[in-house]
Amino acid sequence: MSDIRQRRRRSRRNIKRIRQRNRRVLLSVGLLCFIVWAGFVNVSKQKKEQEAEQAYAEQQEKKAREAKEVKAGKEEKDEPVLAAESEKNKWYLKLVNAKNPMIQTDVPEVETETLDSEGYQVDARIMKDLEAMFEAARADGRSPMICSAFRAWDTQVSLYQNKIGRVMNEEGLNEEDAAIKAATVVAKPGTSEHQIGLALDIVSSEYTNLDEGQMETEDQKWLMENSWKYGFILRYPLDKSDITGVIFEPWHYRYVGKKAAKEITEQNLTLEEYLGEEPVGDPTENIK
Ligand SMILES: [Zn+2]
């Protein structure tokens, strides 16, 4: 009997020990699970935070990029390409107008070359491009004609004086008022581009009047479309008189070089605008 009791006691102790051990094991496993779970939660939380941060940064970057693109687009639209500072003092971009007149001694010494049998002269440096333009026009079946080119100081003085005289006679104005009116048609000496050998008046051989009818001629249409390719611009365009200070002259072409001619024509600018200079003002404003 005592044997049996002893065995039972032993077995109860064993069972107790086993239970205690199982409890410890369970506890340890539980603890381990908790640690692993907590770690996992923490890592995934960090990961989520990182992802959110990254998404935010990407969003900000995208916004900045879009804003930049919009600004660039605007600049392209609003801000024209103007003459580079390094170009502004080049001989072919010389600005001569009523706000930037030359006195007689300012007029650059121009080496001129005679163009044709009529004896018209231009700055020798534009000769090659001018000839190429006329050649191309003829090849296209056009026949434009030069009717004025380089003018020496004295020539411009007599043209201007003659015009004043005619206005006084025809309209009964005094000399001062006649001079203002004359200057809208014939540039006052020192303000004409013809004096620097870079300007030409070109008319159609089918219509030689210096008036707005020129722009209807095929020759003039050809020049307006193609002259920029050879470095020339129509210098006093329609609706730009308040900037150029000269009435619309669909015959007066000015050499500005090929790069400037292309940029000016493409952007519908005047030389004043291209050089960032002040507008001259409407030439007819002070007429009485
Ligand atoms: Zn002219």
Automatic annotation (TrEMBL):
Q: Which residues form a coiled coil?
A: 1-77
The reply to whether Coiled coil figures as a keyword in the UniProt entry is yes
Instruction: List residues of the D-alanyl-D-alanine carboxypeptidase-like core domain.
Output: 121-258
What name does the UniProt record give this protein? D-alanyl-D-alanine carboxypeptidase family protein
User: Out of the domains of life, which is the source?
Assistant: Bacteria
Q: Which organism is it from?
A: Blautia argi
Q: Which GO terms describe its biological process?
A: proteolysis
Alphabetical keyword list? Carboxypeptidase, Coiled coil, Hydrolase, Protease
User: What is any Pfam family matched here?
Assistant: VanY
- InterPro entries assigned: DD-CPase-like, VanY-like_core_dom, VanY/YodJ_core_dom, Zn_M74/Hedgehog-like
